[in-house]
Design a protein that fits this description.
The chain is of the alpha/beta class. Helices cover 35% and strands 9% of the residues. Strands 3-2-5-6 form a four-stranded parallel beta sheet. The two termini are 33 Å apart.
């Protein structure tokens, strides 16, 4: 079932109408890991929590919590960008970290991400204009896993589903990437994402992956020391490492992505 069809089956907006993992299409190579999680105690507890919140009338985003695992198969992951939880405004979240649905205003953090890409001389000519499209779908289909550590949130309540079980799944996802693939680049922006670094390093016994760290791209921290996000050049550094490890570089900007 395509994502749009599954979304229609679950509801008419990007909100979650029911706890229905069987409707959330994902790549087949993620399925065993996801099945184990939902069958285990943390997965069952998470299901109970979300069902209770839905019964209580909570509006929960997004309609497809596992969309990152649909668009980016495990076998194709070459970059991992870790976010915190989905956007908590109507229509924004689409199941991809930092990405916002088409037609919605660019969030400040995403605007700074685009700014950093635009100013990096290794990625081609810069342009003063920002894109109007905040969907990072094109990155996901190139092998960039846009993974929030918590995969659902309630309307207007950031971090409202934190520590309810999603983090167990997303840690397992990161561990699977580290163990299965070679030469992956992990971009960890801010303290929350950097808390995943020990998970990566504990699993990367042969040191085959590159971990890049910087402040969060939020305007509150993007320019602050000790590791400002603006000027970090993570996107060109990632491409250099991918090429060294026989991966194709990511097209971070270009007319085809509406990122100029």
């Amino acid at each position: 079932m395509a994502f749009e069809e599954g979304q229609k089956a679950a509801g008419t907006s990007n909100s979650l109408a029911a706890w229905a993992p069987e409707r959330w299409t994902i790549s087949s190579d993620w399925q065993p890991l996801v099945n184990r999680f939902f069958a285990g105690p943390q997965g069952r507890a998470l299901a109970d929590f979300v069902r209770q919140r839905l019964v209580a009338g909570a509006t929960i985003y997004p309609g497809h919590p596992l969309r990152a695992l649909e668009l980016t198969p495990l076998s194709k992951v070459k970059v991992v960008i870790i976010g915190q939880d989905p956007y908590h405004g109507p229509g924004q979240a689409q199941g991809l970290a930092f990405s916002v649905s088409q037609g919605y205003r660019l969030p400040p953090s995403l605007r700074n991400i685009y700014k950093e890409i635009s100013r990096d001389p290794e990625l081609g000519p810069s342009d003063v204009d920002f894109p109007v499209d905040g969907s990072l779908h094109a990155w996901a289909t190139q092998g960039v896993l846009l993974l929030n550590t918590c995969l659902t949130v309630e309307d207007g309540l950031p971090a409202s589903h934190a520590q309810q079980g999603w983090e167990v799944l997303t840690r397992a996802v990161v561990q699977a990437v580290v163990a299965t693939n070679k030469g992956v680049v992990f971009m960890l922006w801010g303290a929350h994402a950097q808390a995943m670094r020990p998970v990566i390093e504990a699993s990367d016994t042969q040191s085959t992956h590159l971990v890049l760290v910087a402040n969060h791209p939020s305007p509150l921290s993007a320019l602050r020391p000790p590791q400002p996000f603006i000027g970090c050049r993570h996107f060109s550094l990632a491409n250099s490492y991918l090429i060294q490890n026989n991966h194709s570089p990511v097209v971070w900007k270009g007319d085809s992505l509406n990122i100029i």
